[in-house]
Amino acid sequence: MTEATGIVGEFLSLKETTDAEVLAMQCGDFYEFFDADAELVAEELDLKLSQKSSHGSSYPMAGVPLDDLTPYLKALVERGYRVAVADQYETDDGHAREIVRVVTPGTLLETSDADAQYLAAVVEDGSDGAHADTPSYGLAFADVTTGRFLVAAGEDRADTLTELYRFDPVEVLPGPAVRNDDELVQQIRERTDATLTLHEAESFAPKRAEHVVREQFGREPLEGLDVPRPAISAAGSILSYVEETGAGVLASMTRIATHHSDDHVTLDGTTQRNLELTETMQGDREGSLFATVDRTETSAGGRLLKEWLQRPRRSLSVLEERQRSVGALASAALARDELREVLGAAYDLERLASKATHGSADAQDLVAVRETLGVLPQIADVIDSDAELGESPLASIVDRPDRTAVADLREMLEEAIAADPPSTVTQGGLLQRGYHEELDEVIDRHEEVRRWLKNLADREKRQHGLSHVTVDRNKTDGYYIQVGKSVADAVPDHYEQIKTLKNSKRFTTPELEEKEREVLRLEERRGELEYELFEQLREDVAAEAALLQDVGRALATVDALSSLATHAAENGWVQPDLRRDGDLEIDQGRHPVVEQTTEFVPNDVRMTDDRGFLVVTGPNMSGKSTYMRQVACIVLLAQVGSFVPAREAEIGLVDGIFTRVGALDELAQGRSTFMVEMSELSNILHTATEESLVILDEVGRGTATYDGISIAWSATEYLHNEIRAKTLFATHYHELTGLAEHLPRVANVHVAADERDGDVTFLRTVRDGPTDRSYGIHVADLAGVPDPVVDRARDVLGRLREEKAIEAKGDGSSEPVQAVFDLSSGTMERSATTDGGEAASKSGARASLETAVSSETDADRETGLEPEKADVLADLEEVDVNETSPVELLSKVQEWQRRLEDE
Ligand SMILES: Nc1ncnc2c1ncn2[C@@H]1O[C@H](COP(=O)(O)OP(=O)(O)OP(=O)(O)O)[C@@H](O)[C@H]1O
């Protein structure tokens, strides 16, 4: 194909200079896409494709009007594409184009989503070999829409991933070593929705990064922060990336802060999903813990509350302070309502600050800033007017921003911006009268001339005795006096005709021409001056970005706290008693989400030194999972500073919450369920500590029974003996309930159900002790399994319980086989005799029903056993099943099998 020239050629060569997936290039009043990019946007955004020919070839082309680019840009970026935008500018001999911005998921400013939008960088240390054995990691997070900037350290890979999940970034810049770490990259891909972007490696270089960071934040903050070197590299690379993409928001990043994982409860991505923190297992927002407790009035408040839930705290003093505010707000019903009403008028100041620094804030945005600044003193008044609120930490929250500076900025905006300005910044009407002398003069004169023009028709009629006269303006004729044809001949001499129409003639006069020139000049000057002044104003506001962020933060904090108070007051939640370490005692606890839709049966939890490990049993569907999640949610809410759904609660603070529950979505990611189950278990066993809360639901279920029981058993021993974490373990393996007799801190609890005449009633009450049966058949019945199958299952179960022979039902064409299930070993035995299984049930050799059939003739020769087989039987007889762990049993069985096979 010949090389494209002209506009397509320009497009294709610009495209080569960027690593963005899509290029939008301005061509006059349109942004155009060509070639493969046109096909991509046509497909993704439903744009119409046309063809553009260049040098004998034809290229697909699609376009959007200049002012409509934003929504298309947003849609593309939200689908994970990086989009370069090239603008057109005038040159001496025509125009040229240049890429002015690359919009990526982490640098998209035009978001309408209230959620935080983090851009993250991850850097692995040890590149100099000093820490080669145990690389440590540095992370940085920036939200360009609010200017938040944080750095954090990751001790190892797991810790780093946990930090990443906590912020749920939309875009990640992996550092030079990280991008070669396949496993880490894979985990980031799997567990976040982030786009991975390879930003130039030099920007991560420690010296360069440090320089960039100092330039941005100054020397002092860095010295005050306890930040490891790789975190500075990460921070530097983010700053250079934001600069390079042309987002123009560096100025909104006013402060750098450290995120200390020591202050936060470890809560990995799996646990956030399992507890349905921000979305349900099915991916819905509705029904999540956040959606349930979110009663915030502002989007900034909602964003903060979500952050609190995702990053619960460990510091008792921080939590008690939040509790005091929530407590005061919960009891001051009227003042709380008033606060929430006032908050309703607040806009998202952090986002507005970013828009101002980026230069995209319009006059209405500045009005929003002005009104929101006005909310702060009103909030302060409400707090002051209530004795309890006035004494709570709320008072100092609203005092934190510099109130005088707030008042000054607000006053300045009040004097400057018109009461109800238009949203376009180029059409005038933006500023208040009295703000600027020259502008006022221009406006006065402009109005005066316009009045003169407005009254011209009447004057002409009167002075010259004309009827049918109008004065108007259009693009080609400018201002004109239009006179009806019937009187057109009677116009005075100084009228100059400029056009003849069917029923009228158009004239101008020297005076009108002069006024026209003046009006145009004044309009231009007014527009220019207003825009100039507005830009200056916007810059003044941008210069106060830090102040806006402070006020935004204060309002968001009050909003999040009153949201917690409102939900607590309306749902009868209580303030938990927090302890630095120790027991967990919840009296009449409820699940915060399930209680909203169900007549909830409250339950107690008692986990103390001597019962720190609860084995939870109970029929299917009885409420085991709900009970365990309820405990986790209550602890989590307590560590957010919230009240909790209970009658009374005493909560020993935890350093992490770990869960392993049946997952739904792993198969979609192409990993075997059991593999996922084990890697999650492994993560818990590596990371949990004595101060952690561990929730295990049905661990081991994903594999064969023996393997499953063995793993559940040994994990229990390890958690109990080595880690000593507070653990709740729900299981169907009845065998595990026996552990309570051997391990001192293990206790059994069960969710009770009542069975009468074959009908099961779920009581939802948790009681001490193990359950005695499983009721699985009842659930099968409820689920609509055909009656003959359910009836037969009941029959089989009855026989199993009595250790009686079960006759395998045939289809009538073959002889039935008899076998028994040995409850003590959990194995299926072939009947030794055709009339019953008593003897064989004790024989213990592991054999499936099928092997039983095929080896029937051997068994008939029982008396003439070979010596090796007799030895195996003798060994078998000696084993005390109740005293042997499943793991040991399993290995013995395997050994016997081997010995039998060797025969
Ligand atoms: N305390 C309670 N009060 C009222 N309803 C409850 C309570 N606990 C659980 N439920 C309801 O009972 C149903 C089953 O609960 P859950 O899933 O926790 O059972 P499970 O024992 O874990 O089941 P399985 O063993 O089959 O996984 C859910 O619909 C839940 O909403």
Shape: elongated
**Architecture of the domain at 577-780 in CATH?**
3-Layer(aba) Sandwich
Helix content estimate = 40-55%
As residue ranges, the low-confidence spans are 128-132, 663-670, 832-863
Ligands and ions found: adenosine-5'-triphosphate
Give the CATH superfamily of the domain at 577-780: P-loop containing nucleotide triphosphate hydrolases
Kindly report the spatial arrangement of strands forming the biggest sheet: 3-4-2-1-5-6
What's the CATH C level of the domain at 577-780?
A: Alpha Beta
What distance separates the N and C termini?
76 Å
Quote the beta fraction. 15-25%
Biggest sheet: strands, sense, closure?
6 strands, mixed
Radius of gyration: 38 Å
Tally of separate helices: 33
Q: According to CATH, what is the topology of the domain at 577-780?
A: Rossmann fold
SS content category: alpha/beta
Function: This protein is involved in the repair of mismatches in DNA. It is possible that it carries out the mismatch recognition step. This protein has a weak ATPase activity.
Binding site for ATP: 618-625
Pfam family, one: MutS_I
Biased composition (Polar residues): 824-834
Spell out the key features of this protein:
Nucleotidyltransferase, domain 5, Rossmann fold, 6-stranded mixed β-sheet, binds adenosine-5'-triphosphate, ATP binding, elongated, mismatched DNA binding, DNA damage, 903 residues, alpha/beta
